[in-house]
Write a structure and sequence with these properties.
- The chain is α/β, with parallel strands linked by helices and about 350 residues long.
- The protein contains eleven helices and ten strands.
- Helix content is about 45%, strand content about 20%.
- The strands form two sheets. Strands 3-2-1-4-5 form a five-stranded mixed sheet, sandwiched between helices. A five-stranded mixed sheet has the order 8-7-6-9-10, sandwiched between helices.
- The structure holds 5'-O-[(R)-(carboxyoxy)(hydroxy)phosphoryl]adenosine and zinc ion.
- Zinc ion (ZN) binds next to α4.
Length: about 350
């Protein structure tokens, strides 16, 4: 089946702690998008508990899919294909979505499309602006990943750099926990930092000495924050949060700029949960204006996990690779498919 402008794809996402379903037409027209977050269920534990996540997905998924269909005002029989995240993510959580998506594809007799969650984050920008021109540099920053990717075309990716230890979101979460700011840490630090002095403490900028090295390191920064707070017990959390956030954003933006210059990118695009960060959004746009390339920031709802990006990616994958066989499993460590060079 070759998808076209009227092809309606149901997307399903259950890789971590959001249960989500969405209907997207023609690869970028979001008809409905429903996200049910488990944040409150996991908050008492300070992080996602895999077994609790799987059970919560089981309970939430059918109502979430039903709501996406009702909000779209269509009948199930109008749906042309079902796309679902097959990895990376928590194995139990992934299997809930994959099993449901296969069952719906069988019941409706429509294609099933297995989607890579990382690739879907790259596509969230295309949902809001399909006219983005290649080559693009994508800064993908989430709780599990920190990557700079050159996107040469649809499905054509080259890895320019990635974290050698903690992901950016992980650093936000760990520092927030240390400062007792709550869970999830990113939004908590973002809000607390608004009242702090970002220049009070000069925290280290990992791997920034070599301009051409586009890899990241955040574990030294995390340790530096902990040591500073232990040695200065009277320092305010807002000042620490602001100085920490500035150190992270400084490295992310400088390396994105260098990446764009190295590949002659037409634009820089943000993706992943950390792309919701206020300072990162502001600084990235400023840098894009300085070097004369387009900066594209998907809305905050599209940056964090959602199923619209899964349905959109499913549409493009159906066009390029066709349907996925129903005997496919779930892949907790799935990687982004990369070009050789
Ligand atoms: O992409 P995502 O929703 O889930 C995956 O990891 O796939 O990203 C979640 C991460 C968490 O680490 C969270 O703390 C971070 O994104 N995050 C933020 C902000 N909002 C979410 N980090 C910094 N500032 C924010 N405003
Ligand atoms: Zn994600």
């Amino acid at each position: 089946m070759t998808p076209d402008e009227s092809t309606l794809v149901l997307g399903i996402e259950t890789s971590c702690d959001e249960t989500a379903a969405a209907l997207v037409m023609g690869g970028n027209d979001v008809i409905s998008s429903v996200v049910s977050s488990q944040i409150e269920i996991h908050a008492d534990f300070g992080g996602v508990v895999p077994e609790i996540a799987s059970r919560a997905h089981l309970e939430a998924l059918n109502p979430v899919v039903a709501r996406a269909i009702v909000e779209a005002g269509v009948d199930g029989s109008r749906i042309d294909a079902v796309a679902c995240t097959v990895g990376p993510g928590l194995i139990g959580a992934l299997l809930v979505g994959v099993s449901a998506a296969k069952a719906l594809s069988l019941a409706w007799d429509v294609p099933f499309i297995g989607v890579n969650h990382l690739e879907a984050h790259l596509y969230s920008a295309f949902l809001e602006d399909p006219s983005l021109e290649f080559p693009l540099v994508v800064l993908l920053v989430s709780g599990g990943h920190t990557m700079l990717i050159e996107m040469r075309g649809h499905g054509e990716y080259r890895l320019l750099g990635q974290t050698i230890d903690d992901a950016a979101g992980e650093a936000f979460d760990k520092v927030a926990r240390f400062l007792d700011l709550g869970y999830p840490g990113g939004p908590a630090i973002d809000a607390t930092a608004m009242n702090g002095d970002p220049d009070l403490i000069r925290f280290p900028r990992g791997l920034s000495a070599d301009r051409d090295n586009l890899d990241f390191s955040f574990s030294g920064l995390k340790t530096a924050v902990m040591n500073y707070v232990r040695n200065h017990p009277d320092v305010g959390s807002a000042d620490v949060a602001a100085s920490f956030q500035t150190a992270v954003v400084d490295v992310l933006v400088k390396k994105s700029r260098r990446a764009a210059e190295m590949v002659g990118a037409k634009g820089i695009v943000l993706g992943g949960g950390v792309a919701a960060n206020s300072l990162l959004r502001e600084e990235l746009l400023g840098t894009c204006a300085t070097i004369g390339v387009r900066g594209f920031l998907p809305s905050r709802a599209m940056c964090t996990d959602n199923a619209a990006m899964i349905a959109a990616t499913g549409w493009y994958r159906l066009a390029s690779d066709g349907a996925t066989a129903l005997d496919v499993g779930a892949f907790p460590n799935l990687k982004l498919p990369l070009l050789d060079a």
